[in-house]
Amino acid sequence: MISGPQFPMPANEPEVSFRPGTEAADSLRKALEQREVVEIPTVIGGKKYYSDNTVEVRAPHDHQRLLARIHRPTESQVQEAIANSKSVARDWANLTHASRATILHRAAEIIATRLRVKINAATMLGQSKTIDQAEPDSGCELIDFLRFNAFNAQRVYAEQPLSVPTAVNRADWRPLEGFVYAISPFNFTAIGGNLTTAPAIMGNTVLWKPSEKSALANYIFYEALEEAGLPPGVINFVPGEAELTTRVALSSADLAGIHFTGSSAVFQSLWKGVASKVDAFRTIPRLVGETGGKDFVLAHASANASEVAIALIRGAFEYQGQKCSAASRAYIPRSLWPAVSQELRARLHELKVGDVADSNTFMGAVISKASYEKLSRVLAAAKDDGAVKLVSGGNTWSEPGYFVEPTVLEVSDPKHDLMTHELFGPVLSVHVYDDNAWNETLALIDATSPYALTGSIFSTDRFALHQAESVLINAAGNLYLNDKPTGAMIGQQPFGGGRASGTNDKAGSYLNLLRWASPRVVKETYLPPRDWRFGA
Ligand code: NAD
Questions:
Q1: Is 324 a catalytic residue?
Q2: CATH number attached to the domain at 295-481
Q3: Ligand 1, atom 6: nearest CA belongs to which residue?
Q4: Would you tell me which of 228, 393, 469, 522 could form a disulfide with 106, CB atoms 3.0–4.6 Å apart?
Q5: Given ligand 1 and candidates 127, 181, 211, 402, which is best to mutate, with the most ligand atoms within 8 Å of its CB?
Q6: pTM of the model
Q7: What tens digit of pLDDT does each residue of 204-258 get?
Q8: So what CATH class is 28-291+502-521?
């Protein structure tokens, strides 16, 4: 039940300008030049643990540059973290919503002001984002998640059953009985903020395993939570080895939920792990996972070629194509392809790939050596493939960082691996279809990939748009009309997809928060009957 202050609906956090010459750009430059190596501890119950078992964090665009060392927890420390969160669970659950929401709002203010430059710089260096990609992530979206989660929890608590003249009913919006295991991906600093605070605002305690590749920025966020007054133990920061941490978490009878964002394969393995011992848990764990995508852009013959080309560039190559929503397969009518491909070639030559500290850079490096090697292999194979024509790009280089050129491939076989598999890099596969094969192309898009995360349709023909929307009803959880398929805003486009793309619980909305509550409904009768006979 909600009592106390009401928090107004937040507005999206506006972007700060870091254009050269501004004070913000100056502070950012200084932060990027910092050479201190950060020691990232495991934090349990407010206590920091350092170990000999460390992992180095290096800048993907300058892999000689050491940024941080992660101090991994031991198996018994992961167990201790779970036990510790249990000790604080009741007190945290019993706090008012206003108390919990105040902590999230304080953290949002800290990030919006004092820590903004620091967390953006960490996201730029650790995850190789330009400021144009970092500020909307570790600045705006992270702040939005905190404020909207606080606001949306209030909406959930306000939802109450009907009462009648003879009895009063209420829903006690209890947290889950046990802890939530939050596992976050590398590609958005903000996601770690959501995976942890969405369960926490609903009164749950959380075991957080961040991605090692984003741990630097994630740890700054964690420090903001501590400074905001999050009680020790509510969220324990456990940057452990993935399989070990998961084995320990899944061995606990108190595992009440998993809040995951990452690849479909890992989420499926988590699901199987939980299913294989479902009778061992006190409560059936809630599994929420937002996973991979093979996101499409479909152009109708009526579309404007230039608008399509720009949407493809922004949609496919921002952040090196490492967004779950990135355009990675496109379907362009033959009549439009000469103009679209010409514009793609011309514009892609203008995009600068390199150091993210340079404000003219459009793309930094891909996240790791493993990703670089996989993409290099795929591009080498594409060059020898009769079904594939190189439209633009195709080069890779590994000094000083893991760089992959923005690459467009024309693929004649619409069922080719390049059209079906998520690559998570700056590679866009285009299938050119005959203008009169529009209907067949809609069916093809729907059936081509196991994913259903985002998609976009370009058309100036309203009937064509309507038809495509209907046929592709299950092909995307977030559909864009005459827009690129990326850039969802909290509160405006609640995010998530179906099929192999996850459980579609819509991050940043009240729908997600419902998964972290287990309501108890209480009926109290004013005058209990004193006779067993009906109608007496
Ligand atoms: P990933 O699956 O490799 O890793 C995600 C997290 O899972 C990391 O913390 C990692 O350490 C952990 N992990 C890895 N193996 C594990 C295991 N066996 N058990 C438990 N945890 C394990 O994904 P990534 O490379 O960090 O992120 C990229 C993927 O995330 C892409 O597939 C992308 O589409 C997806 N993604 C989806 C969304 C969405 O909202 N749908 C958003 C961002 C990213």
A1: yes
A2: 3.40.309.10
A3: 185
A4: 228
A5: 211
A6: 0.97
A7: 999 999 999 999 999 999 999 999 999 999 999 999 999 999 999 999 999 999 9
A8: alpha beta
